[in-house]
Specification:
single chain, alpha+beta, 8-stranded antiparallel β-sheet, globular
Length: 693
Amino acid sequence: MTDLSKYRNIGIFAHVDAGKTTTTERILSLTGKIHKIGEVHDGEATTDFMDQERERGITIQSAATSCFWNDYRLNIIDTPGHVDFTIEVYRSLKVLDGGIGVFCGSGGVEPQSETNWRYANDSEVARIIFVNKLDRMGADFYRVVDQIEDILGANPLVMVLPIGIEDDFRGVVDLLTRKAWIWDESGDPTKYHIEEVPADMAAQVEEYREKLIETALEQDDEAMEMYLEGEEPDLDTIRACVRKGTINLDFFPTYCGSAFKNKGVQLVLNAVVDFLPNPTEVKPQPEVDLEGNETGEYAVVDPARPLRALAFKIMDDRYGALTFIRVYSGKLAKGDNVLNTFTGKTERIGRIVEMHADSRNELTAAQAGDIIAVLGMKNVHTGHTLADERNPATLEPMVFPDPVISMAVAPKDKSGSEKLGIALGKMVAEDPSFHVETDQDSGETILKGMGELHLDIKVDILRRTHSVEVTVGKPQVAYRETITQRVEDSYTHKKQTGGSGQFGKIDYIIEPGEARSGYQFESVVTGGNVPREFWPAIDKGFRDMMEEGVLAAYPCLDVKVTLLDGAFHAVDSSAVAFEIAAKAAYRQSMPKAGPQLLEPVMRVDVFTPEAHVGDVIGDLNRRRGMIKAQDTGPTGARIKAEVPLGEMFGYIGDLRTMTSGRGQFSMEFDHYAPCPRNIAEIVIAEARERLGR
């Protein structure tokens, strides 16, 4: 039986370019998993195995690998930093027990760090912090610690202090043991020695050590009493308190170093083992019934309990479809039949493999706490639960954001049409934030995603991985519609044919709903004028019609329909008649309710050198942006704004031109807002022309 206390399921997440993948490479090197360290800037990183990742120097899809440190098994997932791929971070955090948040020593808390930190808070994942790149110009460990407090509202518990900074960065002082770890300049992570604290740092080390101990001992009243009486508890007691506070999310042990120069990574690995939880110490996953309501039961991490496993990622490679699975309880063995609770069908477990980026080791079985991949599962998608056939239950499903941008693609030749369909099917299974639709009127294939880079990469994968050449249309914004006025109305559907006819009368109110409420339906019918069994059909009629607004056929948001009264016929009324009545009522009343076009507004975070702040703000204002905040740091300024997505196409090129190539930005969807009349008129005219209305 595997000892679960020796397991650590961890993820590494951060902003683009903070050094996540480099940190992962150093961890794999130190744990003996790889012998030649691959560099991201050379396109050689182990976990960046896609062509697109190696060329662009960014991580696009999360990669899984396992290694050992001091007899502890680490299952590591290296996640992307770019905002268009946050879906990868979100679903990785969902199945992890702990994480390492990597921050750049000079860039500090950057836009994507905030998003990832928010996701980790939502998933209640314990974390340690690694402030990386302290060898870089402008690096400042103490400033980054302050930013973590101010911007993230987190409580960093400083565990080490840097010795030197920028070019003079030599090592770190471990505050608990009062020992200095000094690395030589050979770049070999094992070439270090441990010595006494440098004399000029003694006072600072004592100050930070006192803070560390006081914060940690708040977890143990007895130890705190001893400390207040002048007796310092032993190191094991302090470490136990740090572990408890980390798992409770009261604070985050904070380390520093330079992954690229191989300095400081051992202490991070020790912290993963010492302070991050094992699978049995994490709050168990709640189980839900098939309607999505919590049952009060939990998937407790225990190999002896019934199987509960979550498919969190699908990846298609040269061997076929790989389904990444986190086993929460029970066991999974080759040849087992398991129930997919989403489809209600059983699946046979074929080959089970342990992943190391894109290579694999065969396994015969897996158990609670494991992260593994299974080959050849046909109908399992991201977020599906695999359970024991005799004792089924569903784990809380994942919720994915809706795409905000779309683009039309068409194969360059007729033979590519079938290949395109097969390739897109595989890509949709891999990435739940990527949608594909066929336009009923034009027959075009429409790709929908989270941003320009997201769709750009998808087209690149089509060309290279699947050898499908496509022509690409202009990116389109995913507009929405809503209403601004309350309308009380009535509609009667009456159709007489030979035999029984159709009859359904409804009196209803259509009115604007609360912001972000979507579509809501309520019935206040009393008496039996509209029998209760017909209410779902009326609800379905209105709900189906909300997919296509009356202005430009975009889906409708934030609309509430209240059924007041109506009438039915004992013979001629049916669910179908009332559904038709609801659909006709929608067409009749929506144009009277002040329909309005909504546009997606993005949260934009721009980094620019100080000299170009005026140009960047002026440009954002021209794009109808609302500036929300501006912070100045030692390496430049960060500007936060809300800007309509329709104004942001091609922004990266304009920003680079304005800032001589030094500007960076990230954006993510924030909310829908009313579209100005002049723009709405253009969008509606284009949509009607496209639809031939």
